[in-house]
Automatic annotation (TrEMBL):
It is a multi-pass membrane protein. The lineage of its organism: Bacteria, Bacillati, Bacillota, Bacilli, Bacillales. The gene is ctaA. InterPro entries: COX15/CtaA_fam (IPR003780), COX15/CtaA_HemeA_synthase (IPR050450), HemeA_Synthase_type1 (IPR023755). Pathway: Porphyrin-containing compound metabolism; heme A biosynthesis; heme A from heme O: step 1/1. The chain crosses the membrane at residues 7-28, 61-82, 94-115, 121-144, 165-182, 214-232, 244-267, 273-296. This is Heme A synthase. It catalyses: Fe(II)-heme o + 2 A + H2O = Fe(II)-heme a + 2 AH2. Belongs to the COX15/CtaA family. Type 1 subfamily. HAMAP family: HemeA_synth_type1. Keywords: Cell membrane, Disulfide bond, Heme biosynthesis, Iron, Membrane, Metal-binding, Oxidoreductase, Transmembrane, Transmembrane helix. Interacts with CtaB.
């Protein structure tokens, strides 16, 4: 079945737009612009369009406008994909996930503006947006029939690779949540050094903020070495299956970049551009890991048949 070119355009715009929402949300958090529009939502400081423009107002209001515009493309993509490629096994599930979690993340953002939320609840905001992004990205890949180009129906994934793919993807969400918790508890610079909290002494964290910061570093180190191990396994055992082979090489590249920007965020005292790249790399990594999960699920179906 031939896919309408406009559907492909919509899917690309939805994916790029969802990426902008994620980075825009990170920018709001990192610049403390969450209350740029005051305790008002959906209006901004009592006006549909803000009259007084400050940097905080511009960042927060722009984020709301982008979210509204991108929501339209995601809704169109979900409905159109459902009708056009609904026969593909994952399409309807991904369409529901994309819209549902987009709405949930918007409601959490609105609730934070209107009433405020605890740090542990706010930390879920980025993770929920990531699920919507991953669903939109996978829908886009289905629209472009990437699975057919990679001949994914011929892929044979062993039990060991299936276990590590599912495990590291679930664990990545823990790492993402812990990173968001670092930001929302203002623990980003509680430790002045890297890799230890204080490199001149080896001591356990002395307060909650240090535990949050160092807990995230340990979690990030574990996923780095876990993906390194999976990549080595893929290089040794999956040379003939290019989507697995190159997929895990790209995954390790992304986690290495994510770890590097995490280190630089501390050493540069939260340079804004470094911090945004840090969010970008973990977003792309999570999207790729979710695609690997899709391959694993298809392989299981094919294996059972």
């Amino acid at each position: 079945m031939k896919i309408h070119p406009l559907l492909k355009v919509v899917s690309v715009l939805a994916s790029l737009g969802m990426l902008l929402i994620l980075l825009g949300g990170a920018l709001v958090t990192k610049t403390d612009s969450g209350l740029g529009c005051g305790r008002n939502w959906p209006d901004c400081n009592g006006n549909l369009i803000p009259k007084e423009i400050t940097p905080e107002v511009l960042i927060e209001f722009s984020h709301r406008v982008v979210t509204l515009g991108v929501s339209f493309f995601i809704l169109v993509l979900a409905i159109w994909a459902w009708r056009r490629i609904g026969h593909v096994r994952e399409t309807k599930f991904l369409a529901v996930m994309a819209v549902f979690f987009l709405v949930v993340q918007a409601l959490i953002g609105a609730a934070q503006v209107l009433w405020g939320q605890g740090d542990f609840i706010l930390a879920l905001h980025f993770g929920i947006s990531l699920i919507s992004f991953a669903a939109v990205l996978l829908l886009t890949l289905l629209v472009f029939e990437v699975d057919k180009k990679f001949e994914t129906e011929k892929i044979a994934i062993g039990r060991k690779m299936r276990f590590h793919t599912i495990g590291v993807t679930l664990y990545s969400y823990v790492v993402i949540y812990s990173g968001a918790l670092v930001r929302h508890t203002d623990s980003s610079l509680i430790c002045r050094d890297w890799p230890l909290c204080r490199n001149d002494e080896f001591v356990l964290p002395s307060n909650m903020y240090e535990w949050v910061q160092m807990g995230h570093r340990v979690a990030a180190a574990l996923i780095f070495f876990w993906i390194l191990y999976i990549m080595i396994h893929a290089i040794k055992e999956y040379t003939s299956q290019k989507v697995i082979y190159y997929g895990w090489i790209i995954a390790f590249t992304l986690v290495a970049l994510q770890s590097t920007t995490g280190m630089l965020s501390v050493l540069t005292r939260l340079n804004l551009y470094v911090a945004l790249f840090h969010s970008l790399f973990i977003t792309l990594l999570f999207g790729l890991l979710c695609y690997m999960i899709l391959l694993v699920s298809r392989n299981r179906v094919h294996y059972k048949r």
